[in-house]
UniProtKB/TrEMBL annotation:
PANTHER family: HISTONE DEACETYLASE (PTHR10625:SF5), HISTONE DEACETYLASE HDAC1-RELATED (PTHR10625)
Lineage: Eukaryota, Viridiplantae, Streptophyta, Embryophyta, Tracheophyta
Residue segments, region Disordered: 1-52
Primary gene name: LOC105114798
Location of this chain's protein in the cell: Nucleus
Residue ranges annotated for the RanBP2-type domain, each copy included: 114-133
Protein name: histone deacetylase
Cofactor(s), by name: Zn(2+)
Amino acid sequence: MGSETIKTGRLANGEAQKSVHKERHGLSSNGMNGKHENLGSNRAGTSSSGEDYDLTMNTGDVDGNLDGDIEPVFARQGDLTFQDIHDNGDYFDEDDEDDSDWEPVQKHVELIKWFCVNCTMVNLGDGVICDLCGEHKDSGILRLGCFASPLSQDAGCSEVESEMKGKNKEMHSQLSASNSSTAIGFDERMLLHSEVQMKSHPHPERSDRLRAIAASLATAGLFPGRCYPISAREITREELQMVHSLEHIQDVELTSHILSSYFTPDTYANEHSACAARLAAGLCADLASTIFSGRVKNGFAMVRPPGHHAGVREAMGFCLHNNAAVAALAAQAAGAKKVLIVDWDVHHGNGTQEIFDQNKSVLYISLHRHEGGKFYPGTGSANEVGRNGAEGSCVNIPWSRGGVGDNDYIFAFQNLVLPIATEFAPDFIIISAGFDAARGDPLGCCDVTPAGYSQMTDMLYTLSGGKLLVILEGGYNLRSISSSATSVIKVLLGEGPGSELGNIAPSRAGLQTVLEVMKIQMNFWPSLGSSYAKLQSQWGAYCNTRKQIKKRQRTEPPIWWKWGRKRMLYHILRRLHVKSKGKPSHHSS
């Protein structure tokens, strides 16, 4: 561009005009070639398009606007440089521009996403409290377990921690096997079992589950402290073959040579998983034989991966080897003739049932969500009772809905679990203790509290004379699993549940489920007969009460009708009804 010019229009009122030097008022021009040129004073010129230009303004405005207050009016934009347009953009009429292809600049907004340490659920935004479970994103649950505050950030050594340590130091000293009644099975190598690559969110079966329980027990002074640790060993192939097929065992072993693998879409393995599974099974086997031999009174297997979904030939549901089945057979190898397994995990233990449904010496009782087979894994209906001469060896108590709480579980214990277990008269009792029916669990969505778990443990403790093995299964809310496990271990130590059982009133669905199971299991356990007749009358009274309530609701007008536009009509009809009822009868007495 040879010269850079601006063409101005004449003032509308036709007053005298003078040209003014552009540089004098700070309006320099910057051409496409990067050079700066100034327009001369009182001089006409030629634009790049060959047209004459004339930069003019009112004469009276010259002296008063030497400080840069002059506001030129541009008539044509076609002859302007890009710098002119940029410097004086406020004076151009944007309506004349064709902006049909204009798109707004998309401002990049970074979406904050974080996963709750307690329940693994995703949270969006810069908040610090989980929308699902109410846990602070930086809470101290992995350091203090369930004793950490859920609403505040972990600030190192807290008052709670100092207070708990002080109490524990005064009350308890490190106990040996000779004076401890409860053994704990744990090995840090089980923490190495993990999903190599996270998918959409952290896997619920994660090593933090054991860390949270261990932190709770340490803070409470239970372990280390009042409980006895047993040394870990890996289960042998010969022991595993009593439960699983050789092909299954080899499949699990193969994962130790692979960085990451999956048995099912949700059942992962890494190079440490096979070792962790062998350690878990070995701890459960040794705890069972140690308890049955009387060297300790009872025990808690703080193990992972869990096991009750693992069947004879298949790993599934986060489970690789069936720890409860291994423990049951280990107890029988130590001399137990009859073993009872009570499984209160929210999911049915399909693997444990498969392993023992033809074995009359092992009674398997499971309380789980079922919902007509719609809840994972879909097995465990009340009609599944065992087979091939072992009918009655499986007792399934399938809840028909979620949200089941303490009352329904304890009611089922009182009317099904304990009567059947008493008639069976086991030598040894194992609890498959999944804590995913606990309040707050993201997978189970039920409502059992730590007090409910301690009550159920206490009932089995009393039945077995304290000779009891509790094996960790599921449970995916760290606060729920750690507080529930701590409550259960306190019962094992002989502390009792802490509250007395009153009259338990089940929900309608809970009562119906118990009756359905009783009707089926009466064929194998005659002791249920008297309870069934009593509950049948209770069910009839309940149904009659419901009918009366519904009838009353139908006769009573709705509140909106009483107080709506027909309010006056309602009162008139009501008075007529009262008067008609108050008239003396025409019949003689």
